[in-house]
Write a structure and sequence with these properties.
73% of the residues lie in helices and 0% in strands. α4 runs antiparallel to α7 and α8 packs antiparallel against α11. It has one domain. The chain is built from 12 helices and no strands.
Length: 317
């Protein structure tokens, strides 16, 4: 049978309905409270640390996101830990929850295709995360204005907004992964555990595995500098298969304008460079562009995998 009409018929109806459900759900409200309390606490502690230690800095506003004060970690460290959990919480039962409630076949009996259902759920969850991130960014910015008394420059605001977009792309990876598992597994508990297992493997064990593989494939014998360089490049290449590494490198470039490279640098490459001079926003964006592209590509690949599996899945109750 050939489909009639656009496959995106009903897309916005699904998106708005799912968005309303997410914003009003108790699960999301609890997660929002956790994120806002921890993030505001870390930002307040960072502001106190900056007031005590920094006299003049052209990028004082950006340090609000990266400065830590014991016992609290930095703002970006909190986001790197909590954003995957929020994305997984919004996506682990996106499809199998409809199966268990016996509502998926009823939705598809309307003039709504599977394309619109899956994409609508993804866009609604991503919009929920985006709204929360924007509110959080505005709160942190306001807190910085109150505590530091310094108005951020236009470049600092632009870097902050790019940091927001990079965080949204990072969240999109874990959301797409959770939705793909919700298509594969019929039980929401199984898809949630699978998503969390992948996140823990990437966050905890991937760097250990990369170090072991690089040491075996490119061993260093006798202090050979070329062998050390080859091992470093291999380790860096393997580490960049992790979304955590890509996200961390993007934040390093965007929130620290002094960063000029994300890999090994030869002395010949430093000729003519004024060390310590911050890069303009355009140059920093070019430096982080491969990592940003990698985050977007990973999101698209995972969503496409879930899309193909969903198209082949039996949905009758």
């Amino acid at each position: 049978m050939t489909r009639e009409g656009s496959p995106w018929t009903g897309l916005w109806a699904v998106t708005l309905k799912e968005l309303a459900d997410h914003l009003s759900s108790i699960r999301m409200q609890l997660l929002e409270g956790l994120i806002f309390l921890t993030a505001i606490g870390s930002a307040y502690a960072a502001a106190q640390e900056l007031r005590a230690t920094v006299a003049e800095d052209p990028f004082l506003y950006l340090k609000l996101f990266t400065t830590a004060r014991e016992p609290l970690p930095s703002f970006i460290a909190f986001l790197g830990f909590l954003i995957p959990l929020v994305a997984i919480a919004l996506g682990f039962d996106a499809v199998n929850g409809e199966h268990n409630r016996r509502t998926l076949s009823r939705i598809l009996s309307q003039p709504i295709y599977r394309d619109a259902v899956l994409l609508g759920k993804f866009l609604a969850a991503l919009a929920t995360i985006a709204l929360n991130l924007l509110a959080l960014w505005l709160l942190v910015t306001g807190l910085g204005l109150l505590r530091l008394g310094v108005v951020p420059s236009g470049e600092e605001v632009a870097r902050g907004l790019l940091f927001l977009l990079a965080t949204l792309g990072y969240a999109g990876i874990w959301l797409a992964l959770a939705m793909m598992f919700s298509v594969i597994f019929r039980q929401p508990a199984t898809s949630a555990l699978a998503s969390i297992a992948v996140w823990l493997f990437v966050a905890v064990f991937w760097d250990i595995l990369v170090g072991l593989v690089a040491g075996v494939v490119r061993p260093v014998e006798g202090g050979n500098p070329f062998a050390e360089l080859a091992q470093t490049r291999l380790r860096l290449g393997l580490a960049r298969l992790s979304p955590n590494t890509l996200y961390a490198e993007v934040l390093l470039v965007l929130l620290n304008p002094q960063v000029r490279s994300l890999g090994p640098v030869f002395l010949a490459q430093l000729e003519g460079a004024v060390l310590g001079t911050p890069l303009p926003l355009g140059q920093s964006l070019l430096l982080a562009w491969p990592q940003l592209t990698g985050l977007l590509a990973a999101t698209l690949v995972l969503f496409a995998g879930g899309y193909v599996l969903f198209q082949r899945q039996e949905v009758r109750a």
